[in-house]
Amino acid sequence: MSTDDQDSKTEDASERKLAQARQKGDTWSSREAGHLMAFLGLLVLCLLVLPIYGPGFVLALSSVFSLAPQMPLETSEDLSQIMEDFALLVAGFLLPALGVLFVFALLSMVMSGPFLVSPARLKPKLSKFNPASGLKRMFSAQNLTEFTKNILRVTLLGAASFLAMKMVLDSLLPGVLLAPQGAIALLGDTAVKVLMTAALILIPFVAFDIFWKRFQWLKKQKMTKQDQKDEMKDTDGDPHIRAKRQELRRRALRRPHMQTVPEATLIITNPTHFAVALRYERGVDAAPVCLAKGTDLQALRIRDIALDHDVPVIESPPLARALYAGAEEEDLIPEEHWAAVAELVGYVLDLRRRIHRKLPEGSHHVTD
After folding, report:
1. Could you tell me if 242 and 332 lie in one domain?
2. Residue 259, Cβ neighbours under 10 Å: how many?
3. Which of 15, 12, 1, 2 is nearest to 224 (CA)?
4. Where is the composition biased (Basic and acidic residues) (predicted)?
5. pLDDT of the chain along its 368 residues, tens only?
């Protein structure tokens, strides 16, 4: 993809495009989350599973071996009983350990990104065997970021492990004798410290990696204005989308237009003389739909209903006047206003995701 093509992609991807990308197996994923969950799983094993089940397992295992010469082995049933008892003993220790690892493996899958099973990912791509493409990927910004991050992570983890082992060696001064139980306790305490330090080191790496991978993926999925128009035309031809849109229109026509205001995505005002209630539902509306509009007292009424139902009200005088003059209720707004309204809709959708950004110049978000 050329730089010019990428620079022209200034619009956020629609839900339809994101869904199509996921169907092709194209989504973001973070390997760092798997590393963190592995360390946390081992940490839980050392803190909970081993202290609770370890001593009993070692004691039972030692008794099995100490009593082995006295066990009867006259028949096959005797051997089967011994093997069954031994299997139960091992299972009593392994099942809790495997259960902990299984839980953290599931958490790793959840944190690593959306889980997808796509046949499209199984198809071979000839571009992957192209040396020129391989070199381009090798020296891409994404791979350089990964390389730098991996070097930094390995360096910090290595330094933490070295310091922990140095503490152990310093505690074993010449002439100090440790009983086996004391040595095991010392090693266990050291393992807990190393794993806990490693987990703390990895937390910022995981947070950065999840943010960076998702940011890069969303940037890759961005659309040009022409892409948005083409998608809107394609969406108009979808019978399911068309049927849902018609149902929304029939439902709105059965009620007074003021009752549709709470369903609006945003209200555009001027600030009190004009008010236009717009709805935009991704994947359903090809463009914003005018639900209701009014002037003077009706405009104030639309604004009050919107504020009562937490519908964002945005003052944009020139746009409000233009929409009032050109938009018909229960119909798409005129195409010449799509770009201006799209910026305001994007602002509102970001607010729902708790992402705050500036409104276009000349617009103001009314809060009361």
Report:
1. yes
2. 13
3. 12
4. 1-18
5. 445 455 667 777 777 777 777 777 777 778 888 888 888 888 888 888 777 777 777 666 666 666 666 666 666 676 677 677 777 777 777 788 888 888 888 888 887 776 665 565 556 665 555 666 656 666 666 677 778 878 888 888 888 778 877 776 676 655 555 555 555 666 677 778 888 888 888 888 888 888 888 888 888 888 887 777 777 666 555 566 666 666 666 665 555 567 788 889 999 998 778 999 999 887 777 788 898 888 888 888 888 888 888 899 999 999 999 999 988 888 888 888 888 898 898 888 888 888 777 888 888 888 77
At 364, is the secondary structure helix, strand, or coil?
Answer: strand
Which domain covers residue 354, as residue numbers?
227-366
Residue 344 maps to a domain: yes
Domain endpoint, select from 170, 191, 220: 220
Q: In sequence order, which ranges of the chain are alpha helices (DSSP H)?
A: 3-8, 15-23, 31-44, 50-66, 76-112, 131-138, 141-171, 180-220, 225-236, 239-253, 297-308, 317-326, 338-352
Residues 6 or more apart whose Cβ sits within 8 Å of residue 43: 192, 195, 196, 199
CATH number of the domain that residue 331 is part of: 3.40.1690.10
Last residue of a domain, one of 155, 189, 220: 220
